[in-house]
Amino acid sequence: MDLGSISPTLLIASIMISATPILLAAIGEMVVEKSGVLNLGVEGMMITGAVVGFAVAVSTGSPGLGFLAAAAAAAMLSLSFGILTQFFLSNQVATGLGLTLVGLGLSALIGKPYEGMKSPTLPKLDLGPLSDLPVLGRMLFSHDLMVYCSLAMVAAVWAFLKYTRAGLILRAVGESHDSAHALGYRVVRIRLLAIFFGGACAGLGGAYLSLVRVPQWTEGMTAGAGWIALAIVVFASWRAGRVLVGAYLFGGVTVLQLNLQAAGANVPVALLSASPYLITILVLVIISARGAHGAPASLGRAFHASN
Amino acid sequence: MIALEKRPQPSRLWSVTTPIVAVVLTMLSGGLMFAALGIDPAAAIRTIFWDPLFNEQFAGFTRPQLLVKAGPLILIAIGLSVGFRAGIWNIGAEGQYIMGAICGAGAGLALYPSDSALIYPVMLVAGALGGWAWAMIPAILKTRFGTNEILVSLMLVYVAENVLAAAASGFLRNPEGRGFPGSRNFRDWPNAYNPELIDGTGMHFGVVAAFVAVIGAYVLMTRHIQGYHIRLAGEAPRAARFAGVSATRMVLFCLGMSGLLAGLAGLFEVTGPAGQLNIDFNSGYGFTAIIVAFLGRLHPVGILLAGLLMALTYIGGELAQLMLGVPGASIQLFQGMLLFFLLGVDMLTNFRIRIGKREVA
């Protein structure tokens, strides 16, 4: 095994890339859960975003349009979840699972003709002198636009929830939908907006996978990334800053195990490939054992105005 | 103005009717989907739901397939439904199914080439224990540390898939297989093979086990105190706690039960229809079983019917791929839509739709 072949600079740069899809999906899901809705369909929305983004980028030659289309498609899909859970009061766990199954089927159907193609990918952003910094430049300032967008999104969500009135209302709806309703807030409408936003974020995350991280389409390529995004929200105890930490930690594990595989580490490949999932479980255990709860009180409960 | 009004009691009529309404809606929107793909919708629906059962040309081959596919679905879904009733969400049945197959097949292969009649029973026990042990991981983590069983059981599916890859290409690989991945073929080893019991029916031990599970679950849920506790825990968790129902034991029982049944299903599949342990021996039964459990309204008899229906969509789907060139993925989408519609129309069971002005209370 040759650990010397792993360059720390490149490692950190690739961690940022590998974490971005999960970060986008997780920050969206956090907003959804803050409004009191548990949407387990992240995986389905992500993979739909991945395939739609890829298809649009290939046909138009523009990755930007691909990202837009991915966000729109996943958001529309999330709306079906929203309508079922908010108007038809269906069980959120079951509906979220259904959304994932629908998304996986839909994406395989749409993606069939695109297998084996290469997509146009996002150019690296030229940050002028910053990119030319010796080590930091390659580590932090040599990325594409979406990496910075995802970071900005975390900051925006944090500020929105902490400092704006709308963010306060969103949190109120998530903590106690009955009280929020009594105060005159439109619980269903607010939740639908949150679900819509979560869907768009998951779509962007999926598109980042198929357009930048892997640049091609293969069936089932999200491979549980959506579920890991859900785990990261728990890990983060529903705080934006910690979502960032969680996503980057997970990105780190993913990249490191790939690097170790490439370096021929003396560990079975199956164990290395399974390590991101095992570590996610481990982290969930540590977080839950500490009893660090921050879950919105109404999370996963259906709301009906007459009750 | 259309408003929903909560029924004092869930409607019996609607709880039986909604699955049928959901199937009809799925057929209609599925028809639209096929039309959009440029396939005659009527022909597609007929090929999926009618031809496997009644077409003289195919039915001889496809009818036995119905039980072959339905067996594992019913077996897994019965286990899942018990947990779902109690509000315990085991989403990782696919992983337990894989681990059951690996442990059961491994126990058998360790005894190769013995021709003792005890081999299959040993494999059965090993398979059931494998699935059970895999389900105990989320169960124990939940009861000891309060981790979310949905996420943990699901993560373990991906771990199980990696173990399967390692088993098929490594420690359980057929030493006489010239380096190809995959274990020995159980078809060539009568004492470890799960054969068709009655020629031309598709009935094998796994199907028998599925029927036994249906009856067992029915008795458990309606006649046994544990079944009452399970329902109580799901519908009124606080009342269950006051009644002395231990939440810890409930989690261990429900997850253990579903893991055991999923593990058995995996063993029956790998020693029967699949024939050998290979990377792609599993066909997503663990996930489809979730749809089956809900479509069957978490009721054993309902699950039996739902399993048969879902098996029909698999077989009909394959037939439609062959005859009409319907893409395979559209069947998966079809199954997902079925769950979606079911959840949507399910509202009618618990709510009444009132059209007109809302009365002032």
From TrEMBL, chain A:
Superkingdom: Bacteria
The answer to whether keyword Transmembrane helix applies is: yes
**Transmembrane regions listed in the UniProt entry:** 6-25, 37-58, 64-84, 96-114, 145-161, 192-211, 217-236, 243-263, 269-289
* Membrane topology field: Multi-pass membrane protein
* UniProt entry keywords in alphabetical sequence: Cell membrane, Membrane, Transmembrane, Transmembrane helix
Q: What is its main location?
A: membrane
Q: Which Pfam families match?
A: BPD_transp_2 (PF02653)
Q: Where in the cell is it found?
A: Cell membrane
Name assigned to this protein: ABC transporter permease
Q: Which organism is it from?
A: Thalassococcus arenae
UniProtKB/TrEMBL annotation, chain B:
Enumerate the InterPro entries for this protein.
ABC_transp_permease (IPR001851)
Has keyword Transferase? no
**Which CDD domains does the record match to this protein?**
TM_PBP1_transp_TpRbsC_like
Asked if the Swiss-Prot or TrEMBL record annotates the protein with the keyword Transmembrane helix, the reply is yes
Pfam families, A to Z: BPD_transp_2 (PF02653)
Q: Spell out where the chain crosses the membrane.
A: 20-50, 70-88, 95-112, 118-141, 150-172, 203-221, 242-267, 329-348
Tell me how this protein sits in the membrane.
Multi-pass membrane protein
The record's subcellular location field reads: Cell membrane
This protein's name: ABC transporter permease
* Organism lineage string: Bacteria, Pseudomonadati, Pseudomonadota, Alphaproteobacteria, Rhodobacterales
